[in-house]
């Protein structure tokens, strides 16, 4: 009798909806598509230095309650309307959470917050959320962690991110080379910037890589390369914060040394704030000072912000406080508003 050698540690399998069927059920309208395409062009222009506005990627650490996210989005849009000449807000809509060991993996993987892993339901929710955000007229940013999930909703994303844990991953660099929007690569978890610069260089080239077609068929895709990839400084475990003038200038020079655009985004959270949400204001103030002193490499910032400040432990959905993060602690939207105004004032003065 032949001994079994295949799938010996797979206990269960479920069918997965195809991207084509999901897009058929939740289609992107013409007006929304035009707005997303326009937002991508605006982001590219800001990152290239052709648009004097500053990019602000702002919103919750992760999405666990679509209703609260849309509430936040409406209020953010209202706050940013009088600042539209100086900043371009892009809503953080992050559906996947990389875990150091284990933990909640995000709305797509576990939409019911109970380890039931109804991934088909999570994909429906994710696409519906992005459609609702697009209907508001807000561009959306999202991190691409699973290399196939993007086929289900990437058409709705205006800015993509590759995180610190995956910046060295060859398959994520290949993925970024084929994505249709600008992509930011974060420096590594220890703080090293060179791995992100290598990732940018790699993603600018054409690659062949395995993925899924929209019909759900395994295929080998060829990318044309993505010329709109940029560096995101987020601090690191070994290096500490890297938003200070010396670190920003060093990063700009490292980019230029590889004949890459000397433009970058600074994440005010994560290693730059030591995961203390209140310190994001200190980071942003430093960046504003640097911009006013002539540092043109800083083209945008990231802020983690939600309706309610702080975070809360994972619990049953009905037991959770409305509008408060269940992952990284965030600034409240009320505390975020003056930071947006400060950034806009800086952009206006530096024209």
TrEMBL record:
It comes from the Bacteria. Its EC number is 2.5.1.54. Pathway: Metabolic intermediate biosynthesis; chorismate biosynthesis; chorismate from D-erythrose 4-phosphate and phosphoenolpyruvate: step 1/7. One of its GO terms (cellular component) is cytoplasm. It catalyses: D-erythrose 4-phosphate + phosphoenolpyruvate + H2O = 7-phospho-2-dehydro-3-deoxy-D-arabino-heptonate + phosphate. SUPFAM superfamilies: Aldolase (SSF51569). The keyword Amino-acid biosynthesis applies. Pfam families: DAHP_synth_1 (PF00793). GO terms for biological process: amino acid biosynthetic process; aromatic amino acid family biosynthetic process. Residues 45-336 form the DAHP synthetase I/KDSA domain. GO terms for molecular function: 3-deoxy-7-phosphoheptulonate synthase activity; identical protein binding. Keywords: Amino-acid biosynthesis, Aromatic amino acid biosynthesis, Transferase. Gene3D superfamilies: Aldolase class I. Belongs to the class-I DAHP synthase family. Stereospecific condensation of phosphoenolpyruvate (PEP) and D-erythrose-4-phosphate (E4P) giving rise to 3-deoxy-D-arabino-heptulosonate-7-phosphate (DAHP). This is Phospho-2-dehydro-3-deoxyheptonate aldolase. It comes from Parahaliea mediterranea. The lineage of its organism: Bacteria, Pseudomonadati, Pseudomonadota, Gammaproteobacteria, Cellvibrionales.
């Amino acid at each position: 009798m032949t001994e079994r050698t295949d799938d010996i540690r797979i206990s269960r399998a479920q069918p997965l909806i195809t991207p084509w069927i999901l897009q058929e059920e939740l289609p992107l309208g013409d007006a929304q598509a035009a707005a997303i395409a326009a937002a991508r062009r605006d982001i590219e222009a800001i990152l290239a230095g052709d648009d004097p506005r500053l990019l602000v990627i702002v919103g919750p650490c992760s999405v666990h309650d679509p209703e609260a996210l849309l509430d936040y989005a409406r209020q953010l849009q209202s706050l940013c309307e009088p600042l539209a000449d100086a900043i371009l807000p892009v809503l953080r809509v992050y559906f996947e959470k990389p875990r150091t060991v284990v933990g909640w993996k995000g709305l797509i993987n576990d939409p019911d917050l109970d380890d039931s892993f109804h991934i088909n339901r999570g994909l429906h929710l994710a696409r519906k959320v992005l459609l609702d955000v697009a209907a508001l007229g807000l561009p959306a940013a999202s991190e691409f962690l699973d290399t196939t999930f993007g086929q289900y909703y990437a058409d709705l994303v205006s800015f993509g991110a590759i995180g610190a844990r995956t910046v060295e991953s060859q398959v994520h660099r290949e993925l970024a080379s084929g994505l249709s929007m600008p992509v930011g690569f974060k420096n590594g978890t220890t703080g090293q910037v060179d791995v992100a610069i290598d990732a940018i260089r790699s993603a600018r080239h054409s690659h062949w890589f395995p993925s899924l077609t929209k019909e759900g068929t395994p295929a080998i895709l060829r990318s044309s390369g993505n010329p709109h990839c940029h560096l995101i400084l987020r601090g690191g475990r070994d290096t500490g914060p890297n938003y200070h003038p010396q670190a920003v200038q060093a990063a700009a020079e490292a980019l230029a040394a590889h004949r890459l655009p000397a433009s970058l985004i600074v994440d005010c959270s994560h290693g730059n704030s030591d995961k203390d949400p209140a310190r994001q204001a200190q980071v942003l103030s430093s960046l504003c000072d640097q911009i006013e002193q002539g540092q043109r490499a800083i083209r945008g910032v990231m802020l983690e912000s939600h309706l309610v400040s702080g975070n809360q432990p994972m619990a049953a959905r009905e037991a959770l406080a409305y509008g408060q993060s269940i992952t990284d602690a965030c600034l409240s939207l009320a505390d975020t508003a003056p930071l947006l105004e400060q950034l806009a004032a800086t952009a206006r003065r530096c024209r």
